[in-house]
Specification:
Strand content of chain A: under 5%
Structural class of chain B: mainly alpha
Largest interface: A-B, 17 and 27 residues
Order of helices and strands of chain A: HHHH
Number of helices of chain B: 22
Distance between the termini of chain B: 50 Å
Number of helices of chain A: 4
Helix content of chain B: over 70%
Strand order of the largest sheet of chain B: 1-2
Helix content of chain A: 55-70%
Shape of chain B: globular
Largest sheet of chain A: none
Largest sheet of chain B: 2 strands, antiparallel
Distance between the termini of chain A: 54 Å
Order of helices and strands of chain B: HHHHHHHHHEEHHHHHHHHHHHHH
Radius of gyration of chain A: 21 Å
Number of strands of chain A: 0
Radius of gyration of chain B: 23 Å
Oligomer: heterodimer
Chain lengths: 92, 564
Amino acid sequence: MERTADRAREIWEQFKHFYEEMYFAPYRRTMLKEIQNEEDVFKLLAFSEMLGLPNPVSYYTMELTPFMLEEFHEWHQRMGMEKSPLDGFKCC
Amino acid sequence: MSEPVLLTLGALALFFLGYRFYSKYLAERVYRLDPDFRTPAHEFRDGVDHLPTNKFVLWGHHFSSVAGAAPIVGPAIAVIWGWGPALLWVVLGTIFFAGMHDLGTLWASVRNKGKSVGVITNTVIGARAKGLFLLIIFFLLLMVNAVFAVVIANLFTNFPSSVIPYWLQIPVAMTIGYLVYKRGMGLLGPSLVGLFLLFVFIFIGASNPVAMPETVLGIPSAGFWVIVMLLYGAIASRLPVWLLLQPRDYINSHMLFLGLGVMYLGLLFTQPEFNAPFFNSAVPEGTPPLIPLLFVTIACGAISGFHGLVSSGTSSKQLNKETDARFVGYFGAMGEGLLALIAIMATAAGFATIDNWSQHYGSWATASAGGVGAFVTGAGNFIASLGIPPEVGTTFISIMIVAFAATTLDTSMRLQRFILGEIGEQYKVAPLKNINVATVVAFLSCVALAFLADPSNPGQGGMKLWPLFGTTNQLTAGLSLIVITLMLWKWGRNYLVSLIPLVFVVVMTTWSMVHNIMGYISQGNTLLTIVGILILSLNVWLILEGILAWRRGRDEPLHPGTSA
């Protein structure tokens, strides 16, 4: 009896997964591209001083940088740069 | 059992045999799909473009991307020549043309690192082709907008009960989008409530039809609806995808599956008889000849170039195993064949008497403009046999088509904006790169086409373009077939499976184009003559390039980096 209930739960979960995938799969690319674009703009703001752009909130963005290390690494690799392009920010 | 039911069951059996044997032959002997081949989804996995996806999900995605209003519009017009030729073309076209084409483009793209047919063709033809391709895609989208705006306008005019449910579907879809993305709710609850609400709206709409006066602001009501729909398309294309397009697309897929099921069930219960002739030897005056026009009138539903764009654009990048291509590509095309098949049955056997049928198919103009209306009436009659009131059934079917066409309108206006941006980039026209300018240009060009293509019938120009739309669509299919044939030939496989459809499609398309252009010239329609000549030139150019690529391919590898 318990095994039947487990099997039913599993089928239900699979159905829900299929149902949600049908919704998200066609537009996943558009959404992720949009998120990436937004995050890239945010990175530009956060690292603006390193590019020579004055940043009025650098006190706060400096504090954010340690948390952005991994994302920054992913970004420069995505952009085709094997090593970090910023002198003061070496992630790899 | 009545004749239409028997024939439908026979056609379904042939579809089954086609999938069971012909697609197996193609998959194993021609394309030689390899379960161990590392697909682009795995090779370039980035979670964005390339992501291995379950084959059932991918099939659902592929099927709902390719199935729309077009496989209904085409067969509904083509029944004017009788149901026999239309049925033969849909059944044989799906099995030997569409299935092979969709499976082939998936395979060609997978074997070329997931590149689209356009990109693969560019490697075959050369970089100079890019600008011309952008222009032809722009024209294709322009025609899609003008055609579908007319389809919706005519449905609103002929079935005023569909007005309320259609416009109320928009806030429902937006609410689903908001709840899923902004409130993080699960999908099942909101979409079930949304679907339920839609059915409530259909009942409300059926008892409260919104009929417009014969003329609004000096133009016929259908023309007024065309402007409204194009304006709606322009605004909707500027909204974020998650807010309207995605949830409505999703509701449409529910309606598509439900609609198909209900219509086939209705046909089974109704047991109708044919009202249309098998072969209409007394076609009304002004009707173009069956050959070659049948083969461009029914474009989607037998073979469609648009499928190749979807197959090689998104599906190939998400294919988990190469062997899944058989199910996703071949069976995906079959889904659209099912839609075209029921469209033929509804328009040929859905009427009470032959006089009812003759009213819809009394002239080529009424068949073109009213073919979809004939489908809605016929399918509504089928549904009525399930105990659903005819006005509710027809409203449901008309909403299904209107929603498909409106989603296509939204998507294609969005794409048109991107293409305009790229044309601006290519030819250094800076204003086109601005999103708002591009949207306005897209809107105005669609309005111009809808109103100038047929000045005697304001707003209805879109339907004049249907043969041109079919031709351009088949032209794109020809492009994919050239790529597939060249690859098969180069790799020493049986290339006849794609060469025969290629020759057939190219001959019929060129013949139709020449016929259409002669007609436009004799009518003195400059706009359509220019558009027609442009497409014909591309067609001829395509044939020449195919021959050149074949001659080149004898001495050098077809695609650098590809392996058999």
